[in-house]
């Protein structure tokens, strides 16, 4: 239950303040580095001596799981630090770690080196979005929070398109060097970014901050947290399975020409740019986060069905067009993180806003073996259909069961 709000009003800022700009650019580099492996997966593995198609698929899934495992660990680490030490320390600390890890990725010579560096990069990548969204949500007026997080997401997801262009033009090793360099350059923008006033006020209170375990000691709080996690799973089903394994799905669907994972990721994330803009705007116009999320989940379900069952024998152009619209349909990522941040008090807000998206991303670790286990009896298409339907239905239920958070006053703590 929330405690009594603090007495003095915290400082608020504008939509184009340094805080919003740095959070947006940080997420841009975050997405660039996060998605880069999916884009360069095939070429990088071939250069490391993995040539058999089945081995490329299996080793690629192994490396994705290592990256996602790092994000699970990092989500807890950065979330706790965000509530104990501050949002800014996490924002810039995470950028530093994933930038250095991605620079090192450009030098790998073995699969094991690749795997451990993806784990370290995953730990770094886990902190930026949650800290950025929390900082923006706590420093913007409550009527503009949705627009602020929409800007962060719209700018951020376009980093995937830059990753595709750089990977295609400069090669996979140089693409990692560019990503690391962009992150280090971003650290120079720390000047002019100030800490959240709500966090500064929380520091002066006696309420315990950043205790991850308290999310599990209260039944109602745990239920809220679990529902927040479940909302983000469909996005990572789409990106982690349907889009990352686009070449494999294109073969099963008898697409008339070659399909690359890089282009599938490019078009999906191009769609995400429009989707995040639309979902954030829609939540403001409807004055409801939950209704906007429900509409997008239904839209996503329709597009997953089109991807799996209505594209047999089409051209690569049509396939990529569906990837683009599928990206629009899952463009509710920042809205999902905003809802998670708005559901909890200041002393646990960064913990939730950081762990929720990373646990949702980390769901790939469970989705992949489930997908592979069902692939034998159901086939590639059938396995994806079952997994997609279940994740979407559970997410829709989770949204419907959460309290509406639009316009909610965030100046309170969890007791």
TrEMBL record:
One of its GO terms (cellular component) is plasma membrane. It comes from the Bacteria. Keywords: Membrane, Transmembrane, Transmembrane helix. It is a multi-pass membrane protein. The chain crosses the membrane at residues 12-40, 60-81, 88-108, 114-135, 147-167, 228-247, 259-280, 292-311, 317-341, 378-399. The keyword Metal-binding does not apply. Its main location: membrane. Residues 19-406 form the Major facilitator superfamily (MFS) profile domain. It is found in: Membrane. SUPFAM superfamilies: MFS general substrate transporter. PANTHER family: CARBOXYLIC ACID TRANSPORTER PROTEIN HOMOLOG. This is Predicted arabinose efflux permease, MFS family. It comes from Hymenobacter psychrotolerans DSM 18569.
